[in-house]
Amino acid sequence: MSVTTNEPPQEATPSPAAALRSGSLGTADIAFFVVSAAAPLTVMAGVAPLAILLGGIGAPVGYLLAGITLAVFAVGFTTMSRHIKSGGAFYAYITRGLGRRVGIGAALLALIGYNGMEIGVYGLLGSTFKDTLRALAGTDVPWLPIALAGLLLIGYGGYRSIDFGAKVLGVLLLAETGILVLLAGGVLLKGGAHGLSAATFHPDHILVPGTAAVLAFAFAAFTGFESTVIYRREARDPERTVPRATYLAVGFLGLFYAFIVWVAIQAFGDAEVVAAAAKDPGGLFFTAISTYVGGWAADLMHVFIVTSVIASLLAFHNAINRYALALSEEGLLPARWGRIHPRHRSPYVAGVAQTVLGAAVVLAFWAAGADPYSQLLLWVNTPGMIGLLLLQLLAALAVPCYFRRVRHQEGALRTVVAPIVAAVLLATAIVLVITHIDLFTGASTTVNWILIATAPAVFAAGFPLAGWLRRKRPRVYAEFAAEPAEPADRADVAAPA
Predict the structure, then answer these.
(1) Is the dihedral of CA 93, 99, 102, 108 positive or negative?
(2) Average model confidence (pLDDT) across the chain
(3) Which of 225, 250, 302, 268 is nearest to 59 (CA)?
(4) What is the CA radius of gyration of the chain?
(5) H or E element: which one contains 127?
(6) Which of 24, 123, 292, 338 is deepest in the core (most CB within 10 A)?
(7) How far apart are alpha carbons 355 and 206 in whole angstroms?
(8) Rounded CA separation 267/196 (Å)
(9) Separation of alpha carbons 268 and 48, rounded Å
(10) Whole-angstrom Cα distance, residue 383 to residue 85?
(11) CA–CA separation, 374 vs 334, rounded Å?
(12) Three-state DSSP string of 369-391
């Protein structure tokens, strides 16, 4: 009898040992997760040639502008992170600023957004692995076994401890950025095709019709950078490491993207690069590195694109697991999803659930005869990307609303000016992405409208859910994203209704 009566409390209230591994992650570790999620090598080799094709030699400036916009967003975002201790990141910030109904909609949007950004990438893993085997060994293999093997590999990585994941991502990130640095070194040492040029930064090459499309691609290239705050419970000195990691990630990505795209332009020459991108966009970077470094480096680039995709999958998987953990603690997801492995200190049940969901989506697309790249990747990724951009916009709007209601000593630049400027710029980015959606998907008008509508529909579903929770589960509703008051400097005990 004693065993039977003691078991439920043990499951409902984990022992102190069954908690996330606090103090595991430093600034660099968190930055590895964020930058790895962005998959720099995949973005450069796979997407940057299209940006050059559409925007000409001014394309690098688009990445700088996107980086500046998100750095402005990070000002208010990181300021609020010093006041919000929740592991729920976006939805917690939005709840505390804009109310529980909006926050619950944001929680659903975060789940769909992050899952969309990860699950679609299993199609990219299948297609890039196929391409790599074909290029290196002349072998053709089906994509489904590759994607399923990737699901198991990523599931195992999420099951292990967070510091294990950080070490893996550190190695993989070093590989993918290293090959791009190698390309840059080769081009710079040889002086490019016709000497190094700064024409990229001339207004005549920036203010062109294709710049809007380049900006849409550029904003998409930063997706996931805000996930730094998801790891605050596992960070060392989170009040410092989380903001530092956020700025480090945004700054690195913005400058690195712009620099590498400029290098690719120098490799072919200002007058020839657009024609080269039009002729073979997928091979642009491989041709460049073969020419300036050697064929062996192109072979390495093929391999490192695969590892870049794996790193992105692992980074998003860890972020999703921690969102699911937070929402299970809130009562919006099953309580068992909040179980933490006693040895690895990972939210392993949430990880298993995410892996099963990913497998179901991958198998459904395979059964329908879908293409792993043009349909599984693009059709699943695009709503996720739009969802995360909407979350960034809502978070920017939440910052001034939050600081209007609490006692604080933060300056107006951080709590009002920067967030409002960021909100305007992010709204512009969303419009650019939506109006150029065909560049991302290559799909029909009907499919594009469905993809565009998915994220707002999921967000809107949060409002009736909030009403149902308020009536049927009032305690869950009242405590959603709430934190204990801190009398010394806080006036907000709970989120506004």
Answers:
(1) positive
(2) 85
(3) 268
(4) 23
(5) helix 121-137
(6) 123
(7) 43
(8) 9
(9) 14
(10) 28
(11) 34
(12) CCCHHHHHHHHHHHHHHHHHHHH
Task: Identify the CATH number of the domain in which residue 142 sits.
Answer: 1.20.1740.10
Question: In this structure, how many other beta carbons lie within 10 angstroms of the beta carbon of residue 73?
Answer: 27
Backbone dihedral angles phi then psi of residue 294, each to the nearest 5 degrees: 145, 160
Chain segment 88-144, per-residue pLDDT in tens: 678 888 999 999 999 999 999 998 988 998 999 999 999 999 989 988 888 888 999
Give the number of C-alpha atoms closer than 13 A to the C-alpha of residue 401, restricted to the C-beta side. Answer: 16
Domain that holds residue 440: 19-478
Neighbours of 202 (CB within 10 A): 13
Does 370 fall in a domain?
Answer: yes
Nearest to 107 by CA among 197, 99, 367: 99
How far apart are alpha carbons 205 and 67 in whole angstroms?
A: 19
CA-closest candidate to residue 311, choices 208, 172, 113, 471: 172
Phi-psi region of 191 (alpha: psi -120 to 50; beta: other; left: phi over 0): left
The upper half-sphere exposure of residue 295, i.e. CA atoms within 13 Å in the direction of its Cβ, equals: 2
- Could you tell me if residue 79 is inside a domain? yes
Q: How many residues does the chain have?
A: 497
pTM of the predicted protein model: 0.86
The whole-angstrom separation of Cα 441 and Cα 383 is: 11
How far, in Å, CA of 398 to CA of 98, rounded?
A: 6
Q: Is the dihedral of CA 167, 173, 174, 175 positive or negative?
A: positive
Nearest to 313 by CA among 358, 279, 365, 252: 358
Cα-Cα-Cα-Cα torsion 131, 134, 135, 136, nearest 10 degrees, comes to: 120
The number of folded domains in the chain is 1
Q: Does residue 13 form part of some domain? A: no
269 φψ region: left (φ > 0), alpha (ψ -120 to 50), beta (else): left
Q: Which phi and psi (to 5°) does residue 235 adopt?
A: -90, 150
Q: How many angstroms separate the Cα of 354 from the Cα of each of 312, 319, 337, 347, 443?
A: 15, 11, 10, 11, 27
Summarised one tens digit per residue, pLDDT across range 344-372 is 788 889 889 999 999 999 999 999 999 99
DSSP state of 208: S
pLDDT-flagged residues of the chain (< 70) = 1-18, 21, 86-88, 226, 483-495, 497
